[in-house]
Amino acid sequence: MGSLTISNVTKTFGSTEVLKGINIDIADGEFLILVGPSGCGKSTLMNTIAGLEEVTTGQLLLAGEDVTERSPKDRDIAMVFQSYALYPTMNVARNISFGLEMRGVPKAERDQRVQEVSTLLQINHLLDRKPSQLSGGQRQRVAMGRALARSPRVYLFDEPLSNLDAKLRVEMRTEIKKLHKRLGTTIVYVTHDQIEAMTLADRIAVMKDGVVQQLGTPNEIYDNPANQFVAGFMGSPPMNFVPCEVNSDGSLAIDTSGHSLSLMIPQSSTLKAQNIHRVILGLRPEMLTEPKPERVGDSVMALEMDFDVTEPMGADTIAIGEWNGIEILARLSPEAGLRAGKKTPVQVDLSKVILFEPESGERIR
Amino acid sequence: MGNTSMSVGRYAIYACLVIFAVLYLMPLYVMITTSLKDIEEIRQGNLLALPAAPTLYAWAKAWGSACTGSECEGLAPFFFNSIRIVVPAVLISTLIGALNGYVLAKWRFRGSEFLFAALLFGCFIPFQVILLPMARLLATFGLANTVTGLVLVHVIYGVAFTTLFFRNFYVSVPTELVKAAQLDGANFFQIFRHIFLPISLPIFTVTIIWQFTQIWNDFLFGVVYSGQGTQPITVALNNLVNTSVGGKEYNVDMAAALIAALPTLVVYVLAGKYFVRGLTAGAVKG
Question: B284 pLDDT exceeds 70?
């Protein structure tokens, strides 16, 4: 069993506090992803879980046992590194079996395990090669094989795909997901790529400045971000943030291409009741589209906009217009009949808009 | 036009190189030819002439029967003294340097940088400064005038250099290899043995050549800390050249000097290309 409890973990280097009290409960078999910008402490958290760095205060429980003081080898955790960290002088088979060898597993059993793992990862034909004779994708597989060989209770992945080219990254992403389905072992996975996070995770922990900003399922994080940082970090293209004045009836004042709009949104009554005058409107690009008759409803509003720039992406086209002097991205169908400098009819779906405090970036609910 | 000026420049460079090569090789040429001549031919004064009747008489005498002070057994016993000093001193100082470098590069601890700086300082201490304190220390340990004592002195003095070499080599090895091996369950020495030693051939070559040359060529420690019967070959060579029975035998002196220099020459010829390669060896690509 591989449940993992991170309880009040802090870590300071000199006078810098890198982790400021992290609390995460990871269920057995869960795929948890740590995301955040560089320097947010996600890799440090990973290293403390592995035991490569000691926590300053706090506790780590693995399957209910306190492992805070244990050395890395006694934690039954395996890790896949960003640089793969394959042993350069050993061939692939020995790279995979080295952990077993160090633990005194007999040769016959090691060989059998190497066969199993290499079959699973389709690297049988590479067993005699040295790491320097492998391509990036093959090294990645060997690094995973090394982690798999020991059948640990928890796998740690530290940005494992960031050294691969785009196509291979998508392939390996799918493969990691399949592997997790098949093994059902707990995985903690660090990345700064929010698409990896969305596609792989059971739950995502978004970190910034050594604090977990939000912990939730990909959908919770995407649809219901806790604050403006999380909202802006997850999603590609990113969420639009438009500073708005609140009218006396609770609607939002928007000025686009020279004419004014009043947006009545689901939160309008709250704004009016709480007497809030300024907000930041959060609107995902896919909520601003060409008119779609099938989606007309109370919270859908038609308007016309000028778009200065369009970026065709194939499946859809990202168009850049302007609200209240701020660039705003719309996600349109390629058939929407866009022409630069000409008014284009669009519709905005306000059912999922999110509001933030202008100063703190906190959610207004 | 550009081509001709280019080739003129080329010729000038080659001419320059050839002149310097000849200049530097001249003494070696004179030594070899003189060692193969007999003393009559040398007295005629044709320094640059090839030997008229080459003979190994001088080499045989220098090796087996030339007088070094009061004894006349040639350089042979001292040659083996040097071997007995150099081999353990090189091996021990290189192994200690490898371990030190491994610790200072990959197992940083509080004060490890200071320790490294202090060790580096050891590279800059002139030999003469430590002569007296070291003599006192060897006397205290009862190692004065012994081969063991000389080995100890060379090990202590060499560790500063060997540590520097290995530390700088191991710094370029990715630390993630250590982390991966730790998670794989390897301990401090297992990581050293299975991960670090196998990639260390270039730096071992550099260090061994460096230490071999330094210790083989050492004269000062050899003359100060050795006694009758434990003198290294450099000291014996000095005694041989300064001992004259009758006239000065230049051919024997030259042969003796060549015998004393031969091991370092051989090491360079055999391992020289690894030396250059090792000095420039960079990061280990995984």
Answer: no
Whole-number pLDDT of residue B285: 42
B231 falls within a domain: yes
What pLDDT score does A111 carry? 95
Cβ-Cβ contacts under 8 Å between A and B: the total is 71
- B282 Cα to chain A: minimum distance (Å): 14
Residues of chain A with confidence (pLDDT) below 70: 1, 340-341
Distance from C-alpha of B187 to C-alpha of B198, rounded to nearest angstrom: 16
Say if residue B222 is exposed, middle or buried (CB neighbours under 10 Å; 0-12, 13-18, 19+): buried
> B191 contacts in A (CB within 8 Å)?
none
Q: Which residues of B touch A (CB under 8 A)?
A: 174, 176-177, 179-187, 190, 194-195, 198-199, 284-286
Q: What is the predicted pLDDT for the residue at B2?
A: 52
B177 closest CB neighbour out of A52, A87, A103: A87
Q: A146 CB near a chain B CB, below 8 Å?
A: yes
Indicate the helix (H) or strand (E) that contains B54: none
Residue B60, domain member (yes or no): no
- Sort A277 into a burial class: Cβ within 10 Å, 0-12 / 13-18 / 19+: exposed
Mean pLDDT of B206-231: 91
Mutate to test the interface with A, among B183, B193, B197, B204 (most CBs of A within 10 A): B183
pLDDT exceeds 70 at position B249: yes
Contact B159, B115 (CB under 8 A): no
Interchain CB distance below 8 Å, B179 and A52: yes
User: pTM of the predicted model, to two decimals?
Assistant: 0.82
Q: Which of A186, A201, A233 is the last residue of a domain?
A: A233
* Residue A105 in contact with partner chain B when CB distance is under 8 A: no
Are A247 and A222 in the same domain?
Answer: no
Distance (Å) of CA B13 to CA A173, B17, B257: 58, 6, 33
Residue B1 has pLDDT above 70, yes or no: no
* Domain shared by B135 and B168, yes or no: yes
In sequence order, the 6+-apart residues with CB closer than 8 A to the CB of B46 are none
- Work out how many domains chain A is built from and give that number: 2
- Chain A residues touching residue B176 (CB < 8 angstroms): 81-83, 85
| Distance, CA of A283 to CA of A241 (rounded, Å) | 7
From chain B, pick out residues whose CB is under 8 angstroms from the CB of A78.
183
Residue A268 dihedral angles phi and psi, to the nearest 5°: -55, -40
- Contact A71/B176, CB-based, under 8 Å? no
pLDDT tens-digit map of B122-175: 888 888 888 999 999 999 999 989 999 999 999 999 999 999 999 999 998 999
Label residue B3 by pLDDT band (50, 70, 90): low
Shared domain check, B36 and B109: no
- ipTM of the prediction: 0.83
Judgement on whether residues B83 and B34 belong to the same structural domain of the protein: no
What is the span of the domain harbouring residue B29? 2-55
Rounded to whole angstroms, the Cα distance separating B56 from B60 reads 6
Host domain of residue A112: 4-233
What confidence tier does B5 reach under pLDDT thresholds 50, 70, 90? low
Q: Is A130 on the interface with B (CB under 8 A)?
A: no
Q: Are residues A212 and A265 in the same domain?
A: no
The answer, for A83 touching chain B at a CB cutoff of 8 Å, is yes
